Amino acid sequence: MGVTLLLSLAAVPPASATTTATAATTEEQRLDRAAPREILRSSGFDAVAPEFARALERARSYGEAKRVVVRQGEALWRRAVDRAQGRGPAGELSRDDDRPLYWARLGMTRELRQWEPTRFGVSETRQRHLIRALEDASRGHNSISYPKKDAAGHHLKRVLVTGFDPFTLDRDVRISNPSGATALALDGTVIKTADGPARVETAVFPVRWDDFAEGTVERTLRAHLPRVDLFTTISQGRAGRFDIERTNGAWRGGFPDNENLSRTETVPVTDPASQPQWTSTTLPYKEIVSAETGRFPVYDNTSVTEIPAGQSAPVVRPDGPTAGSTAREGGGGNYLSNEIAYRATLLRDRLGLHDRLPGGHVHTPILQFGAGNTDPATGKITDPEFVRNRLDIIAQVRQILTTAMDARR
Question: Residue 198: beta bridge partners?
């Protein structure tokens, strides 16, 4: 897979003579719990953060530190993808597990916050720039690349897929996110479609309101949407089912994110004066729902919650929004899964691609632990049913993508 190093040192913020370590975030503090430590140890990813810290200590300038951050962030992404796809050591955990990437990245960002270089100063602004560079590099945001042809000389179609980090970790810190696992399993792979081979490129996004408000989705997707043949954002949704979300709403419902922060407001985007209350999928939902894609049923979800025009109370509309209404929930709710779907499809529309680019959101089933392993206080970090469920979800997403590509002919 092609790798692009985003090392625009001309845009480096002004130097500072002081360096101030900052406190670990709420998300990073969970690293000290037993389950994350066991996930890192049993996957072999426990050495990632210490090795990163040693590399940072060797940096002799801010520019060199940024190169270390990007290089090691991209190396973590490649290592996680290679592990998921059967290349390199796996450790004791099954290869399909997305959690080693998540916890190793948090170990790296914590090291970066606590780093106090002795050869030069790093201001809080520069520290934020380094953390953003690390986030982008270790999430696959830098490495989305589409060769024109495969090894056999066949022209390649292009598919873009996004997943998410684990979330609700204070409820159960062992949680995995099948959308993130799917991103690792599919990144750089080729699926066979009726119109020839299609290259899949992926990226993973944080479960944090503020990152979305700062434009991480648009920064990552903007350059690629005009060049792909299909995209889908993916997240974990309801128990026992897939949903193709027909409509996305411009509302944040306030459920706490991975920093335990809440946001209840209209989704903040550029040019809010032209912001619609709703956006719609252009995925071929009829064909996807009717196809045999795997063991979980797939639904065309048309329900939304709106405040009708001229009214003040929200109501559920099973068949989608009515004219002039105000969004309170899209089909995928009003959390970050709805927001990434809203942002990606709004970007599609603002780029003038609505009528030619299939794209939208897919909700996977909730990834459940096996019977007898459901108590977070006493349960193990994995079990055979947990692994089987995740593998089946990944396989079904692959088939959904194939069906969607076949339908666009």
Answer: 157, 191
